[in-house]
Input
Amino acid sequence: MEDGGGSRPFRLASRTAAGGTGLAPSTAMQQGDGTVVGSDRPDQPITNGGPPRPSASVARRFLTTVLFIDVVDSTRRAVELGDSDWLVLQEAHEAMIRFEVARFAGRCLSTIGDGVVASFASAAAAVRCAASIADNSRALGVEVRSGLHSGDAERRGRRIGGIVFHVGARVMNFAAAGEVLVSRTVTELVSGAGFVFARRGSHRLKGLPGDWPLYSLIGRRTLGTRCTAV
Output
């Protein structure tokens, strides 16, 4: 899929002498209650003369689009490659994801096993990022599945939480390898952005009431052109 910014290919490289990717690791952790603690870019303190900074106990709600990404068949790939090569691939893959999230103005909130959770102020940017990550993962020899949902989240100090995270994780669970699967809320927010989705039926999301219609990203239209497949 063409994202307008150009997709940058990634190649595997040996680990640095320090044993890392050269990127600062996330200080965030996802909690079992659907909250995320910390972030890659913590809020900067208010300088003298500015308005008083809210207490860490004061909650602030905001609209966000969350992206959940998980590596498909990671255990099989680890067995095929062996520990050393698998760790090199993991580092390269995570570095690529962090680069793409930043490129689309998102924030990596946490890493969970072989998965990543990110948030975006723009739903369209989140969808473009998910499609780019799927393409670049495939180039690295990895398949990922992605799930997106948009909704209100709540920040209290360094902790971020909300039902939006539960829904995003459940949506991802229904995604196939290489698929970008989104909720109806996401499709409504990106209407007019040229994305083309295919209906994937309605599903019961574990722990959530009602049936949830889900949609698979299949391409994008640009002005004066035909649909470009993802």
